[in-house]
Write a structure and sequence with these properties.
Number of strands of chain A: 7
Radius of gyration of chain B: 12 Å
Structural class of chain B: alpha/beta
Largest sheet of chain A: 5 strands, parallel
Distance between the termini of chain A: 27 Å
Order of helices and strands of chain B: EHEHEHEHE
Oligomer: heterotrimer
Helix content of chain B: 25-40%
CATH architecture of chain B: 3-Layer(aba) Sandwich
Largest sheet of chain B: 5 strands, parallel
Structural class of chain A: alpha/beta
CATH superfamily of chain A: DsrEFH-like
Number of strands of chain B: 5
Number of domains of chain B: 1
CATH architecture of chain A: 3-Layer(aba) Sandwich
Strand content of chain B: 15-25%
Distance between the termini of chain B: 23 Å
Shape of chain A: globular
CATH topology of chain B: Hypothetical Protein Ychn, Chain: A
Largest interface: A-B, 19 and 16 residues
CATH topology of chain A: Hypothetical Protein Ychn, Chain: A
Chains: A alpha/beta (about 140), B alpha/beta (about 100), C mainly alpha (about 110)
Order of helices and strands of chain A: EHEEHEEEHE
Chain lengths: ~140, ~100, ~110
């Protein structure tokens, strides 16, 4: 078990679209493995990284693994903060409504399901980067 | 309490440099490595913005990567300093965190 | 590549015994894999295997042990969602061994 004093804040910075390169899937695998270490984990989605959270992804016909479903399991792994940059969404003609619903169960509030995705602007994203101990880029 | 940002992609091919510069906090450091050093040559399309950013954040370029690409230190945008591998390590060790823009 | 003998045909597995093609899984294959793992499938075993298959169907991953324990507790109560009880059913690790029987890939980050 990790006590609060040694707990570090990890930010996974995701900037690539999901299928063109292996980065997105690799990032997810590291997040899942890293979740065992009980650190404070957040994910950030900037640039093409926002496409990782698109709703209704179906890679079956493309012959690839449908790994987008894994994002919805992150709540079970106590990964509850997925920050998506507004400017990156805007540039791509997307809104938060185009993204998949990702939720976690809040054990302090009778396991109520709460949204994990939070849209932040660029200035807030810069503050998030400056506010974490470790940044892992993918 | 500063962040060392590294950029290793050509700004003429990818948006890694632009995205990095968009997310700086005052006092942060930027280190251009690998193809990232291509941004540092004066007269290029990113000379102006690097010059502007250089007023609030220090910008470095990795000398071995400049040399490999035939970019002379005298041809760098004003204000950009060069470091060798040892300097890279010192920058990373002195920074509170390192953020890579891939 | 070697395989499991099931009803007269061979179903391929990797060097650790995980099915190469998860689409080939059936209850009969599960029994054969369990036998190879020296496990006699009871209702309790099936509960875990079915849970893992449902989880994989929904999330495309096999859960880590602590997630399995947490989720089994939520679904079936404290008695079933107990790490000791799960290890009693699957001595080489509930996620690892039960995943193999469930026809799923080796869990990510599974120890």
């Amino acid at each position: 078990m990790t006590d609060e004093n040694t707990k570090k804040k990890f930010l996974y910075l995701n900037r690539k679209a999901p299928f063109g390169t292996i980065y997105a899937l690799e990032s997810l695998e590291v997040v899942l493995i890293g979740a065992a270490f009980e650190q404070d984990v957040s994910l950030a989605f900037i640039d093409d990284g926002v496409f990782q959270l698109m709703n209704n992804q179906d890679a079956t016909a493309a012959g690839m693994k449908n790994f987008s479903k894994i994002y919805r399991a992150l709540g079970d792994y106590e990964v509850r903060k997925l920050y998506v940059e507004k400017e990156s969404l805007d540039l791509r003609g997307l809104t938060v409504g185009d993204l998949m619903p990702v939720t976690y169960e809040d054990e302090d509030e009778n396991y109520e399901e709460k949204p994990s995705i939070r849209v932040v602007d660029r200035a807030e994203m810069a503050k998030l980067i400056a506010g974490h101990d470790v940044i892992l880029s993918f | 309490m500063s962040t060392l940002h590294t950029v290793n992609k050509s700004p003429y091919e990818r948006n890694a440099l632009k995205s990095c510069l968009d997310h700086l906090s005052a006092g942060d450091l930027v280190l251009l490595i690998e193809d990232g050093v291509l941004a540092a040559r004066k007269g290029g399309a990113f000379a102006q913005v690097l010059g502007d950013v250089g007023r609030s954040c220090k910008i470095y370029a990795l000398n071995p990567d400049l040399a490999a690409r035939g970019i002379a230190v005298g041809d760098l945008v004003e204000g950009i300093q060069t470091v060798d591998y040892g300097g890279f390590v010192d920058l990373a060790a002195d920074a509170t965190r390192v953020c890579a823009w891939l | 590549m070697s395989g499991y003998q099931v009803n007269g045909s061979v179903v391929e597995h990797d060097e650790e015994g995980y099915l190469t093609d998860i689409g080939q899984w059936s209850k009969d294959i599960a029994e054969v894999i369990a036998k190879a793992e020296q496990i006699n499938m009871t209702d309790e075993h099936w509960e875990v295997v079915n849970f893992l298959r449902d989880y994989y169907e929904e999330y495309q991953i096999a859960p880590a042990v602590r997630i399995l324990v947490k989720e089994m507790t939520k679904k079936y109560g404290k008695e079933k969602g107990d790490q000791k009880a799960l290890y009693a059913l699957f001595p080489y690790g509930p996620a690892k061994q039960a995943c193999k029987i469930a026809g799923l890939p080796k869990p990510t980050g599974c120890v």
